[in-house]
Structure formats: C-alpha cells, structure tokens
Amino acid sequence: MNDEAPVALVGYGSAGQEFHAQLLRAAGAAPGLVVTGNPGRSARAARDLPGARIVPDLDAALRAGPRLVVLASPSGVHADQALACIEAGVPVVVDKPLGVDADQAARIVAAAARTRVALTVFQNRRWDPENLTLRRLVRQGTLGEVHRFERRWERWRPVPKDRWRENLPSADGGGILLDLQTHLVDSAVHLFGPVVSVHAEIASRTTVAEDESFLSLRHAGGVRSHLAAATLAGAPGPRTRVLCGGGAYVVTEFFGEQAAFGGFEDSPGHCGWIVAGTERTPVPVEPGDPVDFYRTVLRALALPSGDVRQAAMPVNPLDAVHVLRVLDAARVSASTDTTVPVDQTFP
C-alpha cells in the first residue's frame, strides 16, 4: 500500500463536505482526489481542499491509483461504486447504508472477502458522546439489567428539503429508513447485540419514500429497542431513554436538536442522567472523537495483508448487512402489520 497515494472522496454534498472531508483532514489524510460533476461543488471542494484534484467520475479517480476510496455519494449508487473499487483492488469506506437492501450489501461483503480488499462502513454515530457513554454504563453494569432501549431522531420539518434523500423512492436509496434508521438500528445492535424480530410502523407523509418510522426490535439477549425517526414531530421526545433495573438513563440533547423534554440539560463534562423517580445524577461523559474512525482506518491500511487490514477496520461490514436485514424485515412488517423474524444468515 502506497502511503503517498491520494485518498479519493466520491461525492461532495453535505456528507462529503461536513463529515468525510473534515474528519479525513483531521486524521492527517485530506482527500487528494474529489469526485463530483457538479460545478458548484467542484468550486467548493477547490476552496476547501487546496491542491486536491477534482475529477468527474469514479473511473477517473480509480485510474489515478488512490490508496483509499471514500464513498459519500447517494445511497442508491453505493453498491455499484463499492464493487467497482473492490474490482480495482482499492480499499473502500462506504457511507451508510452499504446498499439499499441486505442482499445488495451481502454481495459487496462477499466480493471484498473473495478479493481480500479492505471494506468498512461509515457508522460515525458510534463515536457520539451519548453512544460512548451508554456503552460504558452497559459494560460496567451501572444500570443493572436493561430491558428497553429507546432512541429517537425526531424533527419538525413540515416542508421537506429538496434533495435526493427526500425525492427518491426507497429502491433508489431515498427515505428516512435508509437514512436515519440505519444509524439508530446500528446503535441498538452495537449496544445490545443482534436482532431476531421486528415490528414496524412506516409512513410517507410529505416525501416520496418514508418520512416517519417506528421500529420495535427484539434482541437475541432479550432487550427490546424502540427506535423512532420522523420529520413531522412537532414536540420531539427525549433522544435516548434506557429503562433498567437501576432506574433509567436519559439524554435529551443531540447536536442542538433539543427535545420538548426540559430539565435534563447537560453541564460541561457530562452526558445524560441516571434517573430513579425524583432522584437524578449527571453522568460523566466518555471521551472519544469521530476522527477515531478514520485514524483506525489509516492504521489498518498500514498493516501488511488484506485479511489483517480487514480485521482491524473500525466497523465490521457484516454489521451493516445485519442492519439492512432488520430494515428489510421492517418493510415487510409495516406492510403486513405483523412481527417479522430477521434473517440471521451472512455471506
């Protein structure tokens, strides 16, 4: 692996600009190639990343011999682009979701395993303070036996944005299920293990694909997760609530998206509260940084062989397959109003 070869960033919309480019630069690997055919985004990339070469398509980027490709493109093209990178022998980071369904994602994982090309999925929310802090509490047993995990990503957005996420059908990557619920399900699986069944309520009220979803998951270990993502929530509920033998763990704030649930604001150095009736105790935040995702990727790429690199990647792509199997089952559940088992097979 040539450490001097450029990192290629495919797509320079909100994900490329606000997440990947900034985190890569902070990790010491600012993109040297940016793929976009949009003149405005090309100009923005040239301003943000002086010295980066702007190319119109993925083929041009692959011909330049990058050491890593990061796909920050629309979800509907992730599968074709990831397979092209794997065929070219180039390690690839795919922004979530890995594909539009689990079968698509499984084909990508199988191709990477067959060719021994390193593959990982950008699940950056694993490095959020609320996730790191809750993971510590669960591992330490501070909360006692957890029986329900609730997480919400609710907004009041009665006029949808004019973007591919809102304008495309789910088969092409649009909708809140493949966007926000991908994060929520990954968090639930990362914290409490694989999901065995799902009961879902899904609606499309203002957009082509879903803009409202509620998933009730049953984990193999017995925990139930209630996950809500919606854009028509005039009074959003608490971001995270964990019900357990020790009371509850509550987080109301999330990157400026304040819940209609006051009195639990965090002070510096704290993240959330342990609550038992009228008693509540602020919880010290677990340190961490989303830049750690890319630091881990770069360390993995410096290892000597494909299998070792893959094992060292920050997110196992099989996790992304499982998340999509949960979402596939959720679609069936919502259409039939039944509880649906989740396929446990993997590539």
Describe this structure in words.
By secondary structure, the chain is α/β, with parallel strands linked by helices. It folds into two domains: 7-123 and 290-311, NAD(P)-binding Rossmann-like Domain (Rossmann fold, 3-Layer(aba) Sandwich), CATH 3.40.50.720; 126-284, Dihydrodipicolinate Reductase, domain 2 (2-Layer Sandwich). The chain contains eleven helices and 15 strands. It has a nine-stranded mixed beta sheet. It has a six-stranded parallel beta sheet with strand order 3-2-1-4-5-6, with helices on both faces. A hairpin with an 8-residue loop joins strand 8 (195-203) and strand 9. Helix 8 (176-192) crosses helix 11. The longest helix is centred in the C-terminal third of the chain and has 20 residues, at 317-336. The chain is globular and about 60 Å long. The protein starts with 6 loop residues before the first strand and ends in a 6-residue tail after the last strand.
Which helices and strands, and how do they pair?
Elements: E1 7-10, H1 14-26, E2 33-35, H2 39-48, E3 53-55, H3 58-63, E4 68-71, H4 78-87, E5 92-95, H5 102-115, E6 119-122, H6 129-140, E7 146-154, H7 164-167, H8 176-192, E8 195-203, E9 212-219, E10 224-230, E11 240-244, E12 247-251, E13 270-276, E14 279-284, H9 291-301, H10 306-311, H11 317-336, E15 340-341
Parallel strand pairs: 1-2, 1-4, 2-3, 4-5, 5-6, 7-10
Antiparallel strand pairs: 7-11, 8-9, 8-15, 9-10, 11-12, 12-13, 13-14
Helix pairs in contact: 4-5, 5-11, 8-11
